[in-house]
Design brief:
Distance between the termini: 28 Å
Number of domains: 1
Order of helices and strands: EEEEEHEEE
Shape: elongated
Strand order of the largest sheet: 2-1-8
Radius of gyration: 19 Å
Structural class: mainly beta
Oligomer: single chain
Number of strands: 8
Helix content: 10-25%
Strand content: 35-45%
Largest sheet: 3 strands, mixed
Length: 105
């Protein structure tokens, strides 16, 4: 996997997944006397909250979207070189720059 850049929900930070950060995870917790919180955290040893959503299911949906972005690439079918004077080109696939903006709640 090449690098995917993830922008925090509040748009104040840009993280490089695959560079400095190795994991994304769902974390559910309750603060004393507060409501249950559903968050997504990024980290490499220590974690940092990058988004909060209303439910575990929504967090999992967002993680699924990020997974889809991580696996995307640019594909060109190539050509057979049928036009006079043209050179055949083989098919190719390459990584493209990828940025994922964490959606609002």
């Amino acid at each position: 996997m090449s690098n995917v850049y993830i922008r925090s929900q509040n748009r104040e930070k840009l993280y490089q997944l695959g560079g400095n950060y190795a994991t994304l995870e769902y974390v559910e917790y309750m603060k004393k006397g507060a409501e249950e919180r559903h968050t997504i955290r990024i980290g490499n040893g220590c974690t940092e909250e990058i988004a909060e959503y209303e439910s575990k299911e929504r967090c999992i949906e967002v993680l699924d979207e990020i997974e889809k972005v991580c696996s995307s690439y640019l594909y060109a079918a190539g050509s057979m070189g049928l036009i006079r004077g043209s050179t055949p080109t083989p098919p190719m696939a390459t990584d493209i720059p990828r940025v994922y903006q964490m959606p609002e709640r």
